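Objective 1b: paired records.
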Amino acid sequence: MSQSTIANRYANALFQLAQEKQIVAEVNADLEELVKVLETTPELLSLLATPKFSIERKKQIVAEIFASANPIVVSTLELLIEKKRVNEVANLAQQFKQLAAASQGFAEATVFSTRALTDQEKDEISSSFGKLVGKEKLTITNVIEPSILGGVRVQIGNYIFDNTVANKLEGLKRTLVG
């Protein structure tokens, strides 16, 4: 079973529970914070994954460190520790974020451009490309990539809209060279 499938199952279960309790936004924020903590202190993830400590001790550590987090987030993390899947936290958080956005009519989009986009440009891209994928709004992450020369490449899930100068030049090259 692939790791993304595992993370997807946990994320779906957590999302359903958060929806029932009407705390989707709070759980999403706690998961984002949890991922930030684990990214900035990889030692913690190593500690939670190591077999040197008992599962109960690991749960105790998690309960102390994340005492202010929502109890269902802490319980989910404890379950991941118990099932030896703590390395799936980042994938689970990403899947949960996508589920939360989709339930609100949003989608995550990555926009590649040669420079930072203005808020107005982001809004225009959001409304234009959101309609193409059937979403009300896109949450845009702007990635600066000078190699595209000009234009933008928009990635929304599995969809890629490539309107870059580099892509057009490559198409022209294929046409001319054959």
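Objective 1b, second protein:
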Amino acid sequence: MKRVLLSIALTGAFGTPAYAQSSLTLYGSLSGAIMYTNNQTGHPNWQIGTGGAGSNYWGLRGTEDLGAGTKALFLLESGFKINTGHFPLEGVGFDRQAFMGLSDAATGTLTVGRQYDSITDYLASFSLAGSGLGGGQFSHPFDNDNVNGSFSVNNSVKFSSINYNGFTFGGLYGFSNETGRFANNRDYSLGAAYSYGPFGAAVAYLQANNPGANNTGAQMEEEVHFKADRQRIWGAGASYMLGRTTLGLVYTQTKFDRQLSNHVSKKLQVTDAGHYADFNNYELNARYRLTPAWSVNGAYTFSTGEFSFEQDPNNRKAKWHQVSLLSSYELSKRTNVFIAAIAQQSQLRNSPVSLTNIHGFKFSTTNRQMAITTGLRMKF
């Protein structure tokens, strides 16, 4: 009898399928704020806003251990507006990211889907806008260099390396998915980062051919306001930690070749297509922790721009000065209150038109604009 029972037990043990370890995580961030601006289209404005000191999003991520150091993974992530509940982009469910792939403990991760480019992955965190400490309002003019992650790349394949003693690298290629037009609306980017003790640095590059057609989709126009035959972004950043203080420096350059339409053209009262639009952004930032719960962050950004249009023989040059401050107090590990102040001044040579526009707000009718934001942020 004992042998029969043992036989049944062994049969049941070996007959049960062995499931690999897997995980599923729900995560996100909610941030709501009261916002004041001294000039939006000619009037001061009070409003309930979304974000302020971070983005609003929720997501699902999952992994399955396949053995031998290999995992299958996926991620679905969507932004939303806390004040209305609407999605940022009409018709796009997971506007931030939607990808799946494989990771190997000895080499890295390979994924396909809708994903961030190398500017966002490697360089953005050296700026306050991309670090999550300042929010989108700290972005460089029009977020021309995408350090705020204003757009993602559809139809993309991406590789991210493992950490080699502080050094990481990766790249992305976005397919056009057009029959007979392989190079139209394709994207590719490369990036690398290095950290050693208190020091960190990164470089990244992005090129988009005919952005705004179908790869970055509506996001390129709605969030960044640009379409062009070609967009190129490259930049470098570095940071150094001194006790409670972290100092950071970021430089980016963005070039739009043969603009098809853009928000800047409308503000310049020019309706024809342009030859080019160039931006240079220089950001110096500091992050100081007064106590374990209370931090103060600030940044100064100087940006220059040059615009050329077919029916305008004179190139128009612009410059921007922006000062941003944020104070945050952590009520818990997941919840904090914050207050932020941003001031921007612009100058466009030989033109009375203002280009002053703190990211996330409407244009000022003068060459100056100020915004104050205070609110609550929760993470889960």
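The helical segments are 2-15, 118-123, 128-131, 218-224, 263-267. Residues 1-18, 214-224 have pLDDT under 50 and may be disordered.
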